Amino acid sequence: PSTGGSPAPADFVLLSEVDPSITTDIRYATAHNFLGRPVDGYQEPVCLLTRPAAEALSRVQAAARAHGYGLRVYDCYRPRRAVDDFVRWAKDPADQRMKAEFYPRVAKDRLFADGYLGAPTAHSRGSTVDLTLQPLPVPSDASQAPGQPLVACTEPADRRFADGSVDMGTGFDCFDPLAHTDDPRITGAARRHRQLLKRLMTQQGFVNYDREWWHYRYADEPYPDTYFDFPVAVSSLPPR
Question: How far apart are CA 133 and CA 73, in angstroms?
């Protein structure tokens, strides 16, 4: 089943209230994503999750600290209207403005068929997160400047967009086989970083999507069959 614009259930929380030490970098609330503009439904750059998933993520953060890292979260709950926005965008072959960075080697009309985008998505159930590791202390945030040249997400770390995170072999939301978690071409530090993130997340009950090193679903999710559509905003949460 799916929900309309009704408020979030009582067990949805702000990740920043559960663990303010986790960095949130909600790309779909900005223009730095594969659409090149804020995505429908992202009213504020906040991370909303079910409480069990948020508390599990806080335990991952504690474990990561022991290795000298912290978590950087790119996306959490994603409303159905955002997925609908992705579908509309994918059907417009003329809009290729972000191809050079996010899908330099994959045809736009293959993004759903090849599994890089999904409709519906587990994100709409509120217990799935896109994330990476970053060194501690946390580096200063970087943002994409208007007009800044796009660099392919498959380029080496010293050339592609730098947001302070560790090298994972590709950038976030890189629609390319190199982003597959266990792609054998990813070696050295990038492979170690992917394996560490996967180990830390798996130990706290998350399951990786093998085509995206950044995508993890909390296995014991409280809404395994419900796809929500309330906007990403603090006001979507019920009064505390």
Answer: 9
User: How many other C-beta atoms lie within 10 A of the C-beta of residue 67?
Assistant: 13
CA dist 38 and 204 (Å) reads 31
* Helices and strands per DSSP (H, E), number in the chain: 5, 7
The DSSP 8-state label assigned to residue 188 in this structure reads H
142 to each of 32, 132, 162, 209, how far by Cα in Å? 11, 15, 7, 27
Which is the catalytic residue, given 17, 44, 101, 212? 212
CATH classification of the domain holding 162: 3.30.1380.10
Into how many domains does the chain fold?
1
* In a domain? residue 177: yes
For residue 6, being part of any structural domain is answered with: no
Per the confidence metrics, is the pTM higher than 0.90? Answer: yes
221 catalytic? Reply is no
Any domain includes 4: no
Expressed as residue numbers, the domain containing 102 is 12-236
**Which of 209, 198, 41 lies closest to 128, judged by CA?**
209
Q: CA separation (Å) from 18 to 55, 134, 211, 220?
A: 7, 19, 29, 18
Please report whether residue 3 resides in a domain: no
User: Whole-angstrom Cα distance, residue 198 to residue 181?
Assistant: 9
Q: What is the pLDDT of residues 105-163, one digit of tens each?
A: 999 999 999 888 988 999 999 999 999 999 998 877 666 666 678 999 999 999 999 89
